[in-house]
Amino acid sequence: MVDSIAATSLLGHRPSFSSYNWKYAATKHNCRLSFTKLMDRKDGFWHVKHPIRSMIKAQAAELTREAHSYREEDRIPRGFRPGIDSGVDSRPGLWPPENKADNPALKNPLLRQERMGCGWLGAIFEWEGVLVEDNPDLEKQAWLTLAQEEGKSPPPAFMLRRIEGMKNEQAIAEVLCWSRDPGVLKRMGSRKEEIHQALQGGIYRFRSGSQTFLNVLVHHKVPVALVSTRPRKSLERAIAVIGIEGVFSVIVTAEDVYRGKPDPEMFMYAAQLLQFIPERCIVFGNSNQTVEAAHDARMKCVAVASKHPVYELGAADLVVRHLDELSVVDLKNLADIEAVELEPELEMEVEAEDDRPPSTSVGVHDDFW
């Protein structure tokens, strides 16, 4: 019992009653505790004295408390059964997620089954360069005009590329470093949008194939969300001009989030408003910042090659030049989170083992040297 406590101590203290110390105490005279002080001979047998026995019991009790020192909230209830292993932590409160695909409030079991199937998905669109035509030169010209009005140095080209997709206040404070004052940031951001709207002229038109694809999604009753870092008034005015009011179930604008791309906050918030888990949502964008934000949010991304060539958008799950190249079947395949992709990996491992070259090692007798 003494040796087992010393060997399995979790407290990090130096063992006090190991077998080495017993031998050392029995053979050396300059030891702090002698063998006769630790032991007592009764009835022809050696017994541990009462104070030492109390110390051993205290150590055993301390070990017991340390082994069960995890928090109460980490314990799994006695009646909890996690069910099928889904690759996530099955402790209560973590799975199923709060924003799960199944909705018990739906009384119709067929609707619940449709919602849980791979065909049930949500589409999250960006506005400029995806649904409507975009002129990147107007964005650059708006920033250069704002810098001239504020007496700031014109931002270089690499900095303008870095602030693509960011909120105006975020770009001014974190990249351009023009100010940190909230009031100044709000004023500069509003002024930049006014300049951009003046350059835009209030003229919007669909990209080729975008209106057709939206009609297909509406026909199949796929919920559609719109995400943009533009102010809500500007975006609603543009939607009214293009004539697609009522198409979007959710609209997320600059006022609704704290940060823009490549932070996934906008897409996560849109998924919550759509009441979908992120794996059921597909993001449609036209930049690598969008692809990065969508993947960080655990969403699939379809990249539209409008201002970037196709080869620069290879990180996306699908790359198209126009949205009408897609079908609902393509979207279902992207949203099919039940698909198992382990078999090809296993086949590759088997092939790798079969293709290994024969071993060239030569056995050598131990007594050779």
UniProtKB/TrEMBL annotation:
The protein's organism comes out as Salvia divinorum
Output the NCBIfam families linked to this UniProt entry: HAD-SF-IA-v3
Q: Which domain of life is it from?
A: Eukaryota
Q: Where are the residues of the annotated region Disordered?
A: 76-101, 349-369
Q: Which PANTHER family match?
A: 5-AMINO-6-(5-PHOSPHO-D-RIBITYLAMINO)URACIL PHOSPHATASE, CHLOROPLASTIC
Q: What is this protein called?
A: 5-amino-6-(5-phospho-D-ribitylamino)uracil phosphatase, chloroplastic
